[in-house]
Structure formats: structure tokens, C-alpha cells
Amino acid sequence: MAERADRRLPRRWIISAVTVSLAGVATAALGATRGGDHDETGPAPSPSPASPIPTTPAVDRIDQARTRIKAYLQRYDGHLAVAALDRQGAAAVAVGSRRFETASIVKVNILAALLLRQQPPGKALGSETRRLAEAMIVSSDNDAAVALWQKIQGFRGLTAANRTLGLRETTANSHWGLTTTTAADQLRLLSALTSPTGPLTPQDRTFIMGLMKKVIPEQRWGVTAARVPANSSVYVKNGWDTVDADGGRWLVNSIGRVVEPGHDWLIAVLSDHHANQQEGIRAVERAATFVLKELRAATAGDGPSQS
């Protein structure tokens, strides 16, 4: 598939907790995922007190995993970046600060912007708007994206919403698919979409995650490859396109969530400069699998914190 009235949102929605550093995911981003209630689409929290701050050996293992992930990505010469965190623990990593065109992963951002405009907050979308939202996410329908892009007032509306969502490295473009972003900023977006302390209502969070869980089978590649076989739930949105400025080579992006026993992973993998789409998909899937394998190993034996 080829992917090609600004109003200020209420100040009380401004999210300050969801922050991610380029050198790694800051502790504030982890804190933003540990609110008093729980995300209806993920595992319910235990009534027991939160686990203590991880010991130094655990942090060292994560640093070692980050080093191995950096070495793994070096083979792509800057054309691949990843960011991941565990909403149930302290594992977090972000490698690669390059800005990539979003292609269709921006459709999740468009839907978040649309929901933030609802008054009162959490008000259900109209039947036609809801149909468009489902088509835009579940089957990556471009016509639906154009219609909703107009509803949020284009790049102005997306820019305003991103201030509320805590995004710092995403630049909206008048053509939505040419919006640029970083892996760290996509992790900020996923954090905002899943955090009980974020700007979206529980109903809105459930709606977005529900659509990402229903993506059609032929588009369920990407970060889904990092799931473990049993007892896991996967939420995904992918983007792919050719880049004129790169001689028609392919960009392939994947963002999503993998919920499994003991972990609730948020992960973003962005890439470009591929000879074809399948090459890009393989690179993204291998990177996602490698990152979560490393982070699982780094946290093996650590009790999960409560989300």
C-alpha cells in the first residue's frame, strides 16, 4: 500500500509524566504508567504494595542489554531505531535519535487527536466517525485517514494534540504520512495511550487499543513477531511506503504493545532505506524480537512492579 480550526485543548489534560530520554527511557515515563487505576486492556494490578526500586544489579543488566542492542542496530548504519519499555517494571531502552517519516503509524496519532477533541471528554464518537476510525486503524484505510485528518484540522490539530500527549520530536506535515517522528516519541505516544494518568479517558484508551488488537491478519507483522507463544496479547499499527528522497527505497515502521505474563511491553521500531517492503519487514521484526529478548533476559528473576 502506498502511504502518502486549531483549538487549544484543556490545560487539565496536559500530560507531564510521559517523558522519554534519547539515551534511554527516563524514569518519569515509567512512573506515568503506574497510576492508581489500571488500563482495562492490560492486566489488573495486584492490591499489594509496589515493588521497591530495582537493585543496582538489575539496572546493570539493563545497561548491558542496551549495549548489545546498540551493537545490533549498528549494522543498519542509522537507518533503524528502537524504543521499548515495560509498563510493569523498570526495563526501558531507546536506541537511535534519527527522525523518520511516519507513513501510516501516524494514524494512531490522528485517532488520539480526534478523541482529545471530544466534548465532554470520553464522549463516544458518532457512528460514521467511529466507522472511519475503525477502517483507518484496522485495515489502514487511507481515505478514512484523510477524512479524519480533516476533522482534526490537519497538521495544526495534530500539533496541538501532540503537546497534550507529551510528544517532543514529532513534526506534523500537511500530508499526514510525511509527518516525522522518532522511536522515543512513538514510545511517548504509546505511554500516553495506555497510562491511567494520561490525557485520554479509560473509554478512549480501550477504544484505541481495541482497534490495534483487531488489525487485519495481513497487516499483523512487525512488533507482533516479538510476542511469546502463549498467554500474550498484541496490539499493533504498521506503516510502510517508498521514499522519493531516498531513490524510491522503502520505509517500514511498527509500533505496538505486547502483554504477557509478568510484562506489559510498549515498543516502537522505525526504519528506512530498504530495497523492498519485505526486507524492511524482516528488519523490523528481527529488531523487535532481539530487543524484547534482551530485555526479558535482563529482567529475568526480578519481580514486576505494579502497573
What does this structure look like?
With 307 residues, this protein is α+β, with helices and mostly antiparallel strands. The chain contains 9 helices and 7 strands. The radius of gyration is 18 Å and the shape is globular. The longest helix is centred in the last third of the chain and has 23 residues, at 277-299. The termini are far apart. Helix content is 37%, strand content 15%. It has one domain (18-39, 55-299): DD-peptidase/beta-lactamase superfamily (Beta-lactamase, 3-Layer(aba) Sandwich). The strands form 2 sheets. It has a 5-stranded antiparallel beta sheet with strand order 2-1-7-6-5, with helices on both faces.
Give the helix/strand layout.
Layout: H1 27-31, H2 56-73, E1 80-86, E2 92-95, E3 100-101, H3 106-116, H4 127-138, H5 142-151, H6 154-165, E4 180-181, H7 183-194, H8 202-213, E5 233-243, E6 249-260, E7 263-271, H9 277-299
Antiparallel strand pairs: 1-2, 1-7, 3-4, 5-6, 6-7
Helix pairs in contact: 2-9, 3-5, 3-6, 4-5
Mean residue pLDDT: 85
Shape designation = globular
Q: What class, by secondary structure content?
A: alpha+beta
How many strand elements?
Answer: 7
Second-tier CATH architecture: 3-Layer(aba) Sandwich
CATH level 1 class label: Alpha Beta
Rg, please?
18 Å
As for the CATH topology, it is Beta-lactamase
State the share of residues found in helices, binned by percent: 25-40%
Report the portion of residues in β strands: 15-25%
**Biggest sheet record:** 5 strands, antiparallel
What's the domain count? 1
Give the CATH H-level superfamily: DD-peptidase/beta-lactamase superfamily
The separation of the N and C termini measures 37 Å
What is the helix/strand order?
A: HHEEEHHHHEHHEEEH
Strand adjacency order, main sheet: 2-1-7-6-5
Uncertain segments are 1-55
Number of helices in the DSSP assignment: 9
